[in-house]
Amino acid sequence: MSNSADLSALLDARRPWHSLPQPFYNDPAVYQADLDLIWSRGWIFVASSAELPKPETLLTVQIGAASVLLARAKDGKVRAFHNSCRHRGSRLCASHKASAPKIVCPYHQWTYDLDGKLLWAREMGEDFSAQDHGLRPVHCCEIQGMIYVCLAETAADMAPLEAQAARYLAPHDPANLKVAFQSRIVEKANWKLVLENNRECYHCSGNHPALCVTFPDDPNLVGADDSSSSNMGLAHVSRCEDAGLPSKYVISPDERWRFVRIPFIGKGVSYTLDGKAASAKRLGSVPFDDAGSCLFFHYPNSWNHYLSDQVLNFRVLPIGPEETEVQTTWLVRKDAVEGVDYDLKRLTEVWIATNDEDRQIVEENQQGINSPGYVPGPYSQIQEGGVNQFIDWYCRTLRENLPAPARLAAE
Ligand code: 3BY
Ligand code: FES
Ligand code: FE
Predict the structure, then answer these.
(1) In what order do the strands lie in the sheet with 311-320?
(2) Average per-residue pLDDT in the chain?
(3) Are 402 and 10 in contact (CB under 8 A)?
């Protein structure tokens, strides 16, 4: 694989409803194409708003080669910039998180305001224009407690997502959440294997004993279809909608994101080993404890669970062709007190175990795919519609973003 014509041929070689040919999972050139055509073009979920609760908080995130600096300024707005000084390019902030009223470059101390303006640069001469050397902005938006950035010159319109997020997520009152815990793990697998694994529950009964206490592994609920083939799903949706809680399956026309609210098993209300709530403070205007989980995915890098007592934001970032970071953020109501309203171990134990089980699964998946014995295998039409939907989205997006000549050659 050396150029986009090869990539186009590789896309052609993909069999429908089958896992991808091996190079998609381990070839450095395909990985680079993923970074250039997927990760540098679309909106990427980078942080929960509650990670930057106060003005003068900075956060950095690495998306491929791009280091991005997020800053919440005094006006309350979060902005994103390339984390590269306009003098000689030094990285401005090396730490994951910082608190500072200004951005001071560690090299020669050029100093920027949190809105990106260059405030001070020593001895640059009369002709120097500070105005022309502000930080380079990166598209950034904050939607219902989630911060997204887009590295492309022109970013896709987020208004449709904003409108639906306001319906499905606002009842959980994301502005009044706090981070209870955050975990970051590295999985030795291609990022697509992490996403594929998330998009099915075919593996759940065999691998997730703790999750399966309350999470239903019914493919009609968690698969690609609109969950209306499940009576349990239909009943849950209409009960929630009757109570004023938007819950019906909705997917964007480009299939980049979707929302659906699904029930837990039996009397379960949360991800706990006894099925009971993990936090005593019910979120926002959620009408009852057993509201289930509103599942929200946003490709290429996030899936989320909105419950009556907590919110889980998952962020996936590629590190290398066979290495991916998965960050999980557990959020509870701002006024919930640890040790009183929630116990941290109880709140986090199910998904800490589940994440580790998923890590093992996808690492084994990667190892098996790396073998010369690997050939793409069939997805289950019953269980793996979600995987197929993700892979369809991926192939379609990659092809759409291929440089024009290669696209022509493929037509
Ligand atoms: O976290 C999720 O959304 C998915 C749904 C199916 C498997 N996994 C638990
Ligand atoms: Fe930042 Fe010189 S590189 S001040
Ligand atoms: Fe899993």
Answers:
(1) 177-187, 323-333, 311-320, 302-306, 293-298, 257-262, 250-251
(2) 96
(3) no
Confidence of residue 4 (pLDDT cuts 50, 70, 90): confident
pTM of the predicted protein model: 0.96
Chain center to CA of 52: 17
Measured from CB, residues less than 6 Å from any atom of ligand 2 are 85, 87-88, 90, 105, 107-108, 110
Residue closest by Cα to atom 7 of ligand 1: 201
Q: What is the C-alpha to C-alpha distance for residues 312 and 321, in angstroms, rounded to an integer?
A: 26
Q: Which ligand is nearest to the CA of 219?
A: 1
pLDDT of residue 221: 80
Ligand 1: atom nearest CA of 197 is 7
Q: In what order do the strands lie in the sheet with 118-120?
A: 103-104, 111-112, 118-120
C-alpha to C-alpha distance for 54 and 58, rounded to whole angstroms: 10
User: What is the C-alpha to C-alpha distance for residues 298 and 24, in angstroms, rounded to an integer?
Assistant: 21
pLDDT band at 407 (very low <50, low <70, confident <90, very high): low
Ligand 1 atom index nearest CA of 203: 7
In this prediction the ipTM stands at: 0.84
The answer to whether residue 408 scores a pLDDT higher than 60 is no
> Sorting pLDDT into bands at 50, 70 and 90, what band is 214?
very high
Ligand 1 contact via 295 beta carbon (within 6 Å): yes
Which pLDDT band holds residue 1 (cuts at 50, 70, 90)? low
Distance 92 CA to ligand 2 centre (A): 8
Q: For residues 247 and 233, give the distance between their C-alpha atoms in angstroms, rounded to a whole number.
A: 10
Q: For residue 283, which phi and psi values (nearest 5 degrees)?
A: -80, 140
H-type alpha helices, 169-328: 191-198, 204-207, 219-222, 231-242
